[in-house]
Automatic annotation (TrEMBL):
Pfam families recorded: GntR, UTRA
Alphabetical list of SMART domains matching this protein: HTH_GNTR (SM00345), UTRA (SM00866)
Protein name: Trehalose operon repressor
Molecular-function GO term, any one: DNA binding
PROSITE patterns: HTH_GNTR
InterPro entries, per database record: Bact_HTH_transcr_reg (IPR050679), Chorismate_lyase_/UTRA_dom_sf (IPR028978), TreR (IPR012770), Tscrpt_reg_HTH_GntR (IPR000524), UTRA (IPR011663), WH-like_DNA-bd_sf (IPR036388), WH_DNA-bd_sf (IPR036390)
A GO biological-process term: negative regulation of DNA-templated transcription
UniProt keyword annotations, A-Z: DNA-binding, Repressor, Transcription, Transcription regulation
Amino acid sequence: MRENIYLQIYNEYSSRIHSGQLQPGAKLPSESELAESYGTSRETVRKALNLLFREGYIHKIKGRGSFVLDMTRMDFPVTGLISFKEMADTLGGPSRTLVEETVQEPAGSMPARQLQIPEDALIWKVIRAREIEGERIILDKDYFRADIVPFLSRDIAAGSIYEYLEGKLGLKISYAKKLISVEPSTEEDHRLLDLKKYTHIVVVRNYVYLENTVLFQYTESRHRLDKFQFVDFARRVRR
């Protein structure tokens, strides 16, 4: 019975947070108040609150209580290598890709430096805005080595490039190095994204490697500050 009550508390409060009935920053009742309300012990309440905390619904401030976190932010895995289409499929809401540019051209200075190729080597440059629930909140700027990816089209870019690379070209995409920073937004960011009042943007730079360790893609993924939280799982190593 005690386990059923703690799950009841968890389910009811997670549902209220998801539905917007409890807004970000709202304070939850105290352990004593919840115990009295549900006719259970503080130990059972504490178990439910700990589960809400672990699942990212609330945060606890010692001496002040438990407060609702912003659940409108979408989790973006730091260590995972996932396409926008794969991420959007997990969200459930409406999303689409708006292709700004798909062109093959000489690499030039910046892409050549990032991909470690000569400046006159051919690359594919793909610029896409990602729209989720009616707002353009991600700008992806991708650069692919043309000797490895000989063809791309606007239609491919509007769908899933990774599905094409892995399914049609048979490329074995293996791992990526990621650098994350917060930087001032550019004119291009404001032109292609719905940035609202935000003057800064989260930039995730991806260096993507094939199974044979060849660096074939460099990406700048530019995210509106309020819509994403970057998540990872860390375990302490005992020495």
